[in-house]
Amino acid sequence: MKKIISVLLVVLFFCSCSEYQSALKSGDVAVKFDVATKLYDAGKYTKAIRLFEQLAPAYRGKPSGEKLFYMYSQACYKTKQYYLAGYQFDSFVSGYPKSEKAEECAYLGAQSYSMLSPVYSLDQTDTYKALEKMQGFIDRYPNSTYIADANATYRKLSDKIEKKVYENALEYNRISNYKSAIIAFDNFIADFPGTPYKEKALYYKFDSAYSLAINSVPSKMEERLNAAKTYYLNLLKFKPNTEYKTKADEMSAQIDLELQKYNK
Fold first, then answer.
1. pLDDT value at position 61?
2. 89 near 108, Cβ under 8 Å?
3. Residue of 35, 132, 52 whose CA lies nearest to 88
4. How many angstroms separate the CA atoms of 118 and 169, rounded?
5. DSSP secondary-structure letter at 117?
6. Is the dihedral of CA 197, 199, 203, 205 positive or negative?
7. Residue 255, CB half-sphere, CA atoms under 13 Å: how many?
8. Which helix (H) or strand (E) holds 131?
9. CA-closest candidate to residue 42, choices 20, 59, 27
10. Going by C-beta distance under 8 Å and a sequence separation of 6 or more, which residues neighbour residue 189?
11. CB-based contact 69:59 (threshold 8 Å)
12. pLDDT-derived band of residue 163, with 50, 70 and 90 as boundaries?
């Protein structure tokens, strides 16, 4: 019995392959569509995609293409071809805006772009694109069943951008480009007022200003020392018991010592 079952499975496998190969070579779009649908339903998405690619020109813009392009988009998503999936989902929503699948496709399209977002240390062009797409979905479907997931994804992407911008500012401090560091931290705090990195940003802004002032030419030192002192006070105003207090107090004391020279 086991041998018979094995033989039947082999026969079915070769019949399936033969049907697929025939469909690829066929000029009959109905045959291609039928085989592509069977492959899609069986979870054989890669093979289905090859047929969908052949069928797309014949069905594009036509009402009968709704099912085809929905399956095509889904197959790309399920095979993790996120660039192509994002494009196909966008095209579906644009081509069939009144479809009952439009909301789902709009969400999955945005989700496709979010899947392309790299780690925060890399270029974030794809992350900005994903944020734009996800915000578009949220604005268009505020009562969607996907809205909680969409908001969670948006926050995750935003956090990545936030960390990237903070790390860029911190890098200026690390390489002793203190003027650029101060500007970068100013912009960061303005752009992300509720950031969990605010204490760190205020401290390293002060640290940058302190280092800039201490190493200044005499003609610029007093002005820069006073600016650094202001940043120290801003840090303590934001968090009196900051984790950087000991080091910050030491720098502040040194600033006061240096300023005494000018008070005389």
1. 84
2. yes
3. 52
4. 19
5. -
6. positive
7. 25
8. helix 125-140
9. 20
10. 195, 198, 201, 202, 205
11. yes
12. very high
